[in-house]
Input
Amino acid sequence: VQLVESGGGSVQAGGSLRLSCAASGYTNIYTPACMGWFRQAPGKEREGVAAIDSDGRTSYADSVKERFTISTDNGRNTLYLQMSSLRPEDAGMYYCAAHGILGYDCYAGSWFKDWGQGTLVTVSS
Output
C-alpha cells in the first residue's frame, strides 16, 4: 500500500488549495474502507482534519467545517481535500491516511493504518 500526497504550497490567508493523495496497493474493490487527512503544525500534536468512508460519508474537525471538503474520485484511488478560506492556523504538514477495515471506525482523527509522507501547507497572514 502506498499513499502519495501532493498539492501543498504557500497561500495567503483567505486563499484556497486542493490537496491530492494517490492511493495504490489496495486490491479489494471495497477498500480502502476509510480515508482521511491529518495535519501537524510545528510543536503541536497531529490533528485529524477530515475522513470519508466507503459509502461517502464524511467527518470533519470542528475547526475546518464549512471551509474544507474531503472527497474521492469514483474509483477511490485518489483522495482530495479542498481547502478554502485558509487561515494561518491551518498551516502545517498534511498527511493522507487510510485503512482497509470495512465497518471499522471512520471519522476525523480515528485510527488509520496506512500513511503518506505528507505535503506542506503554509498560510501567510
